Amino acid sequence: MNAPSTDKSSAAKPTARAAAEKAIETTRDTAREAARRTAEGIEANPLAVLIGGVAIGVLAGAVIPRTEQEGKLLGPVGKRLNDTATGAAQAARDAGKAELDALGLNRDAARDQVGKLIDGVVKALSSAGAAATAKASNK
Fold it and tell me: What is the Cα–Cα distance from 127 to 117, expressed in whole angstroms?
C-alpha cells in the first residue's frame, strides 16, 4: 500500500517563487513611489535642493583629502574662482552701499532720524505733561 508520494520541495517552489515575485513587485512599486515623491519635492523647492547639493559637495570636498595632482591641476582654478567671487562680493557690496546712500539710507541719516524721533517723543511727552498739569489746575 503505497501512498501517493508528495514532494514537499516541489510544492514549496511555486510558493517561494510567488513570494519572491511579489517582493520584487513591491520593491519596484516602492521605488517608483519614492522617485515620484522625490521629483515632486525637487519641483516644489528647487532652491533647497540646490543648497543641499552644494552643502554635500562642500562637505565631501572637506572630508576627502586632496591629492597632489589635484592640487597642481585645480589650484590655479580655485584661486581664480576665489578671486572672482571675492571681487563680485565686493562690487555687490559697493553697489548696494552706493544705492542706499543715494536713497539717503546711511549711518549718518539713520542717526539723524533717531535723534529727530527722540526729540519728537520728548516734545510729545512735554506737551502731554503740560496739558495734564493745566487740566489738573483748572479743576
Answer: 15
What b/e string do you get for 78-88 counting C-beta neighbours within 10 Å, with b at 16 or more? eeeeeeeeeee
Cβ-proximal residues to 41 (8 Å cutoff; 6+ apart), any chain = 49
Instruction: Measure the N-to-C terminal CA separation of the chain; round to a whole number of Å.
Output: 128
Residue with cell 510544492: 11
Confidence at residue 20, expressed as pLDDT on a 0 to 100 scale:
85
For the chain, residues with pLDDT lower than 50 are 1
Residues 6 or more apart whose CB falls under 8 angstroms from that of 100 comprise 106
Is residue 100 within 8 Å of 106, Cβ to Cβ? yes
Are 84 and 90 within 8 A, CB to CB? no
**Read out DSSP for 121-138?**
HHHHHHHHHHHHHHHHHH
